[in-house]
Amino acid sequence: MSSPVKDEQSDAMLEALIAKEILPQSGNWEGTEEFLNRVVQVLLKYIKDQNDRDQKILEFHHPDKMQMLIDLSIPEQPENLLKLVKSCEDVLRLGVRTGHPRFFNQISCGLDLVSMAGEWLTATANTNMFTYEIAPVFILMEKSVMTRMWEAVGWDPEKADGIFAPGGAIANLYAMNAARHQLWPRSKHLGMKDIPTLCCFTSEDSHYSIKSASAVLGIGADHCFNIPTDKNGKMIPEALEAKIIESKKEGLTPFFVCCTAGTTVYGAFDPLERVANICERHKLWFHVDAAWGGGMLLSPEHRYKLAGVERANSVTWNPHKLMGALLQCSACLFRQDGLLFQCNQASADYLFQQDKPYDVSYDTGDKAIQCGRHNDVFKLWLMWKSKGMEGYRQQINKLMDLSAYFTRRIKETEGFELIIENPEFLNICFWYVPSKIRNLEPAEIKARLEKIAPKIKAGMMQRGTTMVGYQPDKQRPNFFRMIISNQAITREDLDFLIKEIVDIGESLE
User: Fold this and answer.
1) DSSP assignment, residue 483?
2) Which of 30, 125, 276, 280 is the most buried (most CB within 10 A)?
3) Closest Cα partner for 220 from 185, 246, 255, 178?
4) What digits encode the pLDDT tens for the residues 382-428?
5) Please, which residues have CB within 8 angstroms of residue 84's CB and are 6 or more apart in sequence?
6) Per the entry, which co-factors are needed (predicted)?
7) Are 375 and 138 within 8 A, CB to CB?
8) Residue pLDDT, tens place only, 227-257
9) Residues in the chain with pLDDT values less than 50
10) How far apart are CA 277 and CA 227, in angstroms?
């Protein structure tokens, strides 16, 4: 631990320095090292506090009050380095600790320290991923990681392709664009004017990015049809085929079907095998959005939920979700090699010269729709090496066991009602009905429930002890959507959440 005298000396040194007086603009290594050491100390304290269950997840402040607690203005003159360190402390102190073991509010949460180390190293290297000459090790690393992912899907790595993208929404866009290009390659140069009126299909519970991709590509959001789901949130194959046939009769040209492996709200897995049969019958591109559920492929015990994924033409997989890599880390995988290059290649002469002294097929940037491409693979590669395949098997199986435990606990706890009686993944959706309204008429209970979850969530945020999301859906009033994805979660944390919901719910006026 540092002494008060040393802290004063450090403060004095940093207060006397501004950024241009340390590396890279100055050779002042002593000042550089002191500044970075202080920033690391801020990070280490944050990591320690975030994993302390006695520490709050957040100190909630409304926006007008928050703006008074931290100076976010950009100054005319440079601020000294001590002030920058203090600003770092304020930003982390006032934010939400999404890596806290009792934060259940979203799919992407937790803080894997090995992945974090990879992200620190990535930021330090600050390398663009467009050509092999700039990022030789990282380009090969991306291929190595993708090989594991292709094998997990069930494809031949010698024939598959893929790219890391800035999020699952963009990965889904890559898939739809490639599907259109395979069928109508002239659309890349001539647009939509010489091709039929296209349409695509996705489950009504799928991620909104499928409709967004349809809009961005000029197909139109209204030509992306939502297929009904059953009581467990799975796409109904018969309804899909009926809509495909109906679309053809109306003069539209179906070309793309998206199944979801792990829906955002209910965690449902669409019936991939049956949908794959339909796609083959109608000669449609079969895409699987496994952004959330792709990690299940790493568990021999649970990968059956994605049976048929190997028949897909493309798969979206977000390691920043179930696998726990730091945001963002998303991949779009393709069964057919070469299609990405054909679809997206722009052949910019200042980057992708064909007479370089190495195999230019490793200049993977020309199969991306971006120019600059962030290195999202180092943090995943390092984390995956730290766990191995067996480590991921254990991690995913543990989370599934915790999901079963939590489901069992709320079934036996008075006042809780499940939306889906037996959740198949890590999403558990439920209501809490306070005792004072349990004997009311069903219509009145439903009306009251609309306000119960928001009030309990507000109570959680005021206490700062835990967080879980809520939402309405279709005709259902607001319900809690519990996500178990943080590898730090224990049964005791789940018990704590149940008690906290009951305590806050019973105290509502």
Assistant:
1) E
2) 276
3) 255
4) 999 999 999 999 999 999 999 999 999 999 999 999 999 999 999 99
5) 19, 35
6) pyridoxal 5'-phosphate
7) yes
8) 999 999 999 999 999 999 999 999 999 999 9
9) none
10) 16
Token pair of 443 as six digits? 């219509």
Look up residue 106 and give its two tokens. 């979203």
Q: Chain centroid to CA 64: how far? A: 29
Measured CA angle at 450 (ends 449, 453), to 5 deg: 75
Contacts 24+ apart (CB under 8 A), 153-160: 153/297, 153/309, 153/310, 153/312, 153/315, 153/333, 154/309, 154/310, 155/310, 155/333, 155/335, 158/337, 159/335, 159/336, 159/337, 160/333, 160/334, 160/335, 160/336, 160/337
Q: Which of 187, 186, 188, 218 has its CA nearest to residue 200? A: 218
Whole-number Å distance between alpha carbons of 472 and 487: 27
Q: How far is CA 360 from the centre of its chain?
A: 31
Pairing relationship of beta strands 224-227 and 198-203 according to DSSP bridges: parallel
- Spatial separation of the C-alpha atoms in residues 86 and 132, rounded to whole Å: 39
User: In the numeric block, which tokens belong to residue 223?
Assistant: 């030509």
Q: Which residue has the tokens 């568990």?
A: 299
pLDDT digits (tens, 9 = 90+) for 310-359: 999 999 999 999 999 999 999 999 999 999 989 988 877 777 788 788 88
